[in-house]
# Entry
Amino acid sequence: MAATLIKGSEISKQIKEELKQKIADLKEKHNVVPGLATVLVGEDEASKVYVGAKEKTCKELGIHSERIDLPADTREEDLLALVEKLNKDPKIHGILVQLPLPKHINGTKVLYAINPDKDVDGFHPVNIGKMMLGEPTFLPCTPHGILELLKRSGTETKGAEVVVVGRSNIVGKPITNMLLQKRGGNATVTICHTGTKDIAAHTRRADILIVAVGKPKAITADMVKDGVVVIDVGVNRLETGLVGDVDFETVKEKAKAITPVPGGVGPMTITMLMSNTVQSAKMHSGIAD
Ligand SMILES: NC(=O)c1ccc[n+]([C@@H]2O[C@H](COP(=O)([O-])OP(=O)(O)OC[C@H]3O[C@@H](n4cnc5c(N)ncnc54)[C@H](OP(=O)(O)O)[C@@H]3O)[C@@H](O)[C@H]2O)c1
# Structure
């Protein structure tokens, strides 16, 4: 069986079209323009690319975007003062402080200083707590994107055996939580990590396998069952180009559906950030969904 490709590049275009319409309606009917502030401290090249991409997507969709670039030697208290200013700015509905921050700044302190109602990254403990309790909140963007990929590719999660490999705070733990919620995925979820005794014994049971470890070929064809749906979150830069965590060429022969790398999960992350920003603008303006 050759797998169907779950193309995040196309699904994210679809979501962006829907967002454009919502943003135009917000402006026309309520005179509300969603606003996102992105803060970049220092000269990290990858971070510059990410922040640039976020700015570009804001422009494309009609979201007001403010980019604040600060020098690498910015003092922690000055960054905290900036966050406080943005917390109070009515034009700004989402605040994103690009990570990693320089070593002299306590990143946790800065993230915790963001008003949870403007935390469109979904990293604030208040929002993580709400997510765990199954309450409405900003869902972290990459796992939120994975949920959309599953939904829009027609993958049934209810009752499915889902295996997640990787327990990071930004992917593994939140996607596990979202998929186990009764009003979320309603799936049976197992999470594997470096402490797991026999990873293959778990992955071979999976109807849906989600891999976020950051190692090429961490999952090979002998570790999956026929008909599995595979979401490969990994992004590994090799001399030959970008690859995921799954041995795509062999696993795709057994899978029912699989995300490619690039063009799978990657494009969804920024799109879901935009979606959270629109959600925040509506919430701050008292507009119901
Ligand atoms: N497409 C996107 O938008 C996007 C977003 C985020 C991340 N990513 C990519 O996804 C990958 C993972 O990133 P991350 O930030 O989630 O991960 P991370 O913080 O680097 O953590 C990796 C996780 O994988 C586990 N792990 C590592 N090697 C393993 C192995 N051989 N078997 C089982 N578990 C293993 C680790 O276990 P321990 O906890 O035991 O150490 C850890 O929980 C990276 O390639 C990253 O670039 C992509």
